[in-house]
Amino acid sequence: MSVVVCEEVVRRFGAVTAVDGVSFQVEQGEIFGLIGPNGAGKTTLLNCVEGLDRPTSGSISVLGRHPVTDRHELTLRTGVQLQTAALPPRITVAEAMRLYSSLYKAPVPWKELLATLGIAGKQKTTVERLSGGERQRVFIALALLHKPEVVFLDELTTALDPQARLAMWEVVKEIRDRGTTVVLTTHYMEEAEHLCDRVGIIDHGSIIALDIVPALIRDHAGDATARLTLTQPAPVNLDRGLDLELELESIDTVTKVQPDGKYLTVQGTGGFLQDVLAELTARDVRIVDLRTTSPGLEDVFLNLTGRAMRTEEQS
Ligand SMILES: Nc1ncnc2c1ncn2[C@@H]1O[C@H](COP(=O)(O)OP(=O)(O)OP(=O)(O)O)[C@@H](O)[C@H]1O
């Protein structure tokens, strides 16, 4: 069953088209990521899906319901991560949990939820004294209190340090493993790679690619690169028919060879590294170092737009 269905969603603010004809579906039990640079339209789209805003045109359904007109029912069946300002700074974590639990008929035991999220020891701490990562976890706990069927997480790990970000990824996987569908936005490609089952890449309000992460990388990321350091410069001896560059270029899986003194950079697909190493061994060319880089979602964005995501990051 599709948990979220967006069809040709457009959201304009005056002359600005923030979301420009977006269609996608989120399936039950998956972690679905909307990724893209700052200003791509992720939050605007998510606001429409959450019923906080209405699209200018197009249609959205969440759990088969309308996000705005069925808002009351959806409030009980979906979880939305609160913004920091939503809680008074002096309230303790336990007080916030009790307050929000009282809003639901059958809330999950909040102490267990805090333990799952790794903040069991913070019950007596006031919200203002929590670290950024701890506060994020409290907001997630509040969004999960009523055991929603789907939870929406917007820029979950922005402003978290790398360690807290890694911990948060585990939290999100745990949420999914407990049966909740997760829809999240991020501008960290690495986050989407590690966390999301499927990813929609948004740029200038449009989805420019949507698939499972390995398929996006396979189809759009380009080739892997190996940088080898040889004991001596790559041999070139055309009299004896030995030109390493030509030999390597003739391998099917190799797409590019760049010798540079003792260094040799080779790009290729599939098992190209194995083929290259076999060729070097056969030619008795010795290597002292080998570094490989696998392409990722960053490269997918670069190849699809001609721009790097990172240069557009502001946080
Ligand atoms: N209420 C508004 N009025 C006018 N323009 C808006 C409004 N909300 C968003 N926009 C514009 O719409 C575009 C998309 O913004 P949005 O916040 O959805 O992007 P985003 O992908 O979530 O970015 P970020 O990663 O920085 O949060 C931006 O150009 C933004 O300035």
Automatic annotation (TrEMBL):
Taxonomy of the source species: Bacteria, Bacillati, Actinomycetota, Actinomycetes, Propionibacteriales
Signal as UniProt keyword: no
Topological type in the membrane: Peripheral membrane protein
GO terms assigned for molecular function: ATP binding
Protein name: ABC transporter ATP-binding protein
Pfam families listed in its UniProt record: ABC_tran
Top-level lineage group: Bacteria
SUPFAM superfamilies noted in UniProt: P-loop containing nucleoside triphosphate hydrolases (SSF52540)
Cellular localization per UniProt: Cell membrane
Alphabetic keyword roster: Antibiotic resistance, ATP-binding, Nucleotide-binding, Transport
Domain ABC transporter: 4-229
Entry's transmembrane regions: none
Nucleotide-binding among keywords: yes
